User: Which sequence fits this backbone?
RNA sequence: GCUGAUGUGGCACAGAUGGUAGCGCAAUUGAUUCGUAAUCAAUAGGUCGGGAGUUCGAGUCUCCCCAUCAGCUCCA
């Protein structure tokens, strides 16, 4: 009988070790140094503890802490450490779940005690104390009965519920570290001593199992590192991210404001409107090139329409209503029903299709008060909507066309994005066959384009499946912007038709789609993406003219007028302030170019240019500068 | 909507244990006419988110609203 197993390493080499050898020993066999730095392993693709023994042939990858999966080990163990500290300081706490997340970890707990920021400091200290004791993370496999008994005895109701919901054949394991025991399938570090730099970030509420009808637990977020320097760097990165916050920059740069008189209803200021109009101009130009017509439909329409569309049944809670002459009306939360009526006003042959109708439509939705967030989540916003009416055999090409459009638009801003396909939700209308057909159409279009996507079961719109496009912003957060939704329902409900080649009436199929998603959210993302330093083509003010003293105001005015005639967005700072002061203000406004004019420029009839990033660029002819601006603007448009 | 926190002049902030509000920047006025990120001085500006209550007296204590923030849920 063979007592050895073959371990295939990532480089393809094969190492033969005795059956029952631990992964840590395999690592030691390679080098002691390696064994010291690794935190865990991937055994046949599964994250596995280093203490695990190898019982059969397989593939082994050893993970260091700076690798993504390596962090998972580190932070998962940190979550247990947090729970251990909570158990010590607040013994009456019940534990729910405590996973590692993208950045750090959290633990959800239930206790009468309300955690305060001071508690977090105490818990940090306790965690450090515990970590130093270097408890081994001991795994033990229990029978379902033993596990239930253990956690029932401890009064851990949440753990009991978790065990009860585990599938029949699931292996039930616990981890011990000192006197703390947790239900957990792992994986973990071997011990706790490598966790040295600890920061508990915040306390928040979270529903048990994410269900708003269940208990609200207290969630403590934290992050840990091996070295204090790494923690400091992380905290500094958070600070940097705060400086990019579009709510803060929106105020500082005079782009938009919010007032308590209109929670979730943003006010756009002149500079914000420049950006908004530029985006809309870009949008209109690109749509004309792709065969779209533009429409505009009313904000308020009779309630009957919303019964027909299905919004009454499926979206009522998010809608605002009003009365006109005793008749019930609704403010549109979506543009599609209006677009349906626009379609219905004409007669169509299959030769007229696809018919692409675009609309920059202002919609109002009653979002939960706690969900509002700057421009990212508002109650009134403009969707850059379009509805495409088509025959069944046009579906795939139209979807491809839209996806290509999305790609071209996002490229202008240098955004990365990823794609999700969402399928039928519980609350929906239509038959299974229609949903299957619609979903298959979306998926096959993406497959043919070789566009990778992830599947999001049950997250579609109530009228059809959708492709969601998630942008990645400057600090790595993803935001849903573009969405492409296929709809077999609404055209039927509205009895839309076209005459086919067979001279028979047919019901068209519809695509709903947005590229920016909402102009408001998109602007918010742009602000953070560029950290307020918009490219020249998008900058509300492209050039600030700064006379050195008011003796040169007349020449500065001349320069400004020439720039305005050349289509440059320009302002001037005529105040009797020192040049350093004016530069500082323009710099804080993140204006791309400053023109400094003083005696030298007046005499030479030139302009001295300063760039917000490169500083002083020296003197040049005004026409050369205008050419430079034009070139920069065209590069993006 | 839920959990927790916060809410003081335009902005960013101080204001132990309750005794009728302070600083900096911005603003206004005056002086300075200046070469690449803050010139000096003076002045003005606040129903302390709103309402009710406790108290001789509330920015400070209690309650109810409103808004904001961090999450949860939801979503473009």
Assistant:
């Amino acid at each position: 009988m063979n007592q050895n197993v073959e371990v295939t390493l990532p480089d393809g080499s094969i190492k033969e070790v005795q059956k029952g050898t631990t992964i840590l020993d395999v690592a030691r066999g390679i080098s002691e140094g390696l064994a010291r730095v690794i935190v865990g392993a991937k055994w046949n693709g599964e994250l596995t503890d280093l203490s695990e023994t190898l019982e059969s042939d397989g593939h082994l990858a050893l993970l260091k802490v700076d690798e993504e999966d390596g962090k998972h080990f580190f932070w998962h163990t940190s979550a247990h450490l947090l729970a251990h500290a909570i158990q010590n300081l607040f013994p009456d706490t019940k534990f729910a779940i405590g996973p590692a997340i993208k950045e750090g970890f959290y633990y959800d707990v239930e206790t009468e005690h309300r955690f305060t920021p001071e508690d977090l400091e105490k818990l940090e200290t306790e965690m450090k104390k515990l970590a130093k004791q270097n408890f081994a993370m001991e795994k033990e496999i229990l029978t379902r009965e033993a596990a239930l008994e253990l956690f029932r005895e401890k009064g851990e109701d949440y753990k009991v519920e978790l065990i009860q919901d585990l599938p029949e054949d699931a292996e039930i394991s616990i981890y011990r570290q000192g006197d703390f025991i947790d239900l957990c399938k792992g994986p973990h570090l071997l011990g706790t001593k490598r966790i040295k730099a600890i920061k508990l970030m915040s306390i928040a509420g979270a529903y048990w199992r994410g269900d708003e009808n269940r208990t609200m637990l207290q969630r403590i977020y934290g992050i840990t590192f091996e070295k204090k320097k790494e923690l400091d760097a992380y905290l500094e990165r958070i600070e940097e991210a705060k400086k990019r916050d579009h709510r803060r920059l929106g105020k500082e740069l005079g782009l938009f404001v919010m007032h308590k008189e209109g929670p979730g209803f943003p006010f756009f200021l002149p500079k914000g409107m420049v950006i908004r109009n530029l985006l809309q101009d870009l949008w209109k130009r690109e749509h004309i090139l792709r065969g779209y017509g533009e429409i505009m439909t009313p904000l308020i329409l009779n309630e009957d329409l919303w019964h027909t569309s299905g919004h009454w049944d499926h979206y009522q809670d998010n809608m605002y209503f009003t009365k006109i002459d005793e008749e019930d009306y609704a403010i549109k939360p979506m543009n599609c029903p209006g677009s349906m009526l626009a379609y219905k006003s004409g007669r169509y042959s299959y030769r007229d299709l696809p018919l692409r109708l675009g609309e920059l439509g202002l919609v109002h939705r009653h979002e939960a008060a706690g969900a509002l967030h700057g421009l990212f989540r508002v109650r009134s916003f403009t969707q850059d909507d379009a509805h495409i009416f088509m025959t069944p055999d046009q579906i795939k090409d139209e979807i491809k066309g839209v996806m290509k459009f999305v790609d071209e638009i996002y490229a202008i801003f240098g955004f990365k994005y990823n794609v999700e396909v969402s399928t039928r939700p519980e609350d929906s209308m239509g038959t299974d066959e229609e949903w299957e057909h619609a979903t298959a159409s979306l998926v096959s279009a993406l497959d043919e384009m070789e566009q990778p996507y992830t599947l999001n079961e049950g997250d579609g719109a109530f009228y059809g499946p959708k492709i969601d496009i998630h942008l990645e912003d400057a600090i790595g957060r993803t935001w849903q912007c573009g969405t492409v939704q296929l709809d077999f329902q609404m055209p039927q409900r509205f009895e839309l038709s076209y005459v086919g080649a067979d001279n028979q009436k047919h019901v068209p199929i519809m695509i709903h789609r947005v590229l920016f998603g909402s102009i408001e959210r998109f602007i918010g993302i742009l602000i953070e993406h560029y950290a307020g330093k918009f490219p020249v083509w998008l900058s509300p003010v492209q050039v600030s003219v700064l006379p050195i003293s008011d003796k040169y105001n007349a020449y500065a005015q001349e320069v400004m007028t020439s720039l305005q005639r050349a289509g440059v967005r320009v302002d001037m700072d005529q105040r009797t302030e020192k040049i350093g002061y004016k530069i500082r203000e323009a710099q804080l406004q993140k204006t791309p170019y400053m023109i400094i004019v003083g005696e030298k420029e007046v005499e030479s009839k030139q302009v001295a240019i300063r760039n917000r990033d490169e500083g002083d660029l020296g003197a040049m002819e005004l026409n050369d500068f205008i050419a430079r601006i034009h070139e920069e603007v065209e590069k993006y448009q």
Q: What stands out?
A: The longest strand of chain A covers residues 197-207. The radius of gyration of chain A is 31 Å. Chain A is about 35% helix and 30% strand. The CA atoms of residues 583 and 594 of chain A lie 8 Å apart.
